[in-house]
Amino acid sequence: MIELDLFFDTQRFRIFDFGGKIEISKVYQDKIFSGYKNLIPSKVIDSNINLYGMYTFDTIENILNGVEENHSTLKEENDIKLLKDAITNKLNEYKK
Asked: At 17, which helix (H) or strand (E)?
C-alpha cells in the first residue's frame, strides 16, 4: 500500500488511494488561534500509477544499454521482488 504525507512550511503533499492520487494542500496560519496552521487542499492529481510498469521497463532497457547506471545491488532487487510478491499475495487473499 502506498500512502504518504510530506509536510513542508507552505505545502503538504499527500499520496493516497494506493498511490493513485496526489493531493496538494496549502498551509495557512490560523486567523483565530495564534501559532496554529490550517491545511486547505488546492488540487488533486491522478498519478497515473498504472504507467509505473512502463517506466520500469524503460529503466531496465536504459541500464542494459549503458544509458543509465544501476544504483541497486542484486540482493536489494531480490528483496524488493520478495516484498512485492508478498504484497500481491496478501491483496489476492483479501479479494477472495
From this structure: none
For the segment 58-91, what is each residue's pLDDT rounded down to a tens digit? Answer: 787 888 888 888 777 888 888 888 888 888 888 7
Radius of gyration over every alpha carbon of the chain, rounded to an integer in angstroms? 19
Torsion angle in degrees (nearest 10) through CA of 47, 1, 16, 77: -40
**Using CA atoms, how far apart are residues 92 and 80, in angstroms rounded to an integer?**
18
Place of cell 541500464: 63
Beta partners for residue 60, in sequence order? none
Q: Which residues contact 21 (CB under 8 A, 6 or more apart)?
A: 15, 44, 45, 46, 47
- Give pTM, 2 decimals: 0.47
E strands, the chain, in order: 4-7, 11-16, 21-29, 37-46
User: By the 8 A CB rule, do 24 and 12 touch?
Assistant: yes
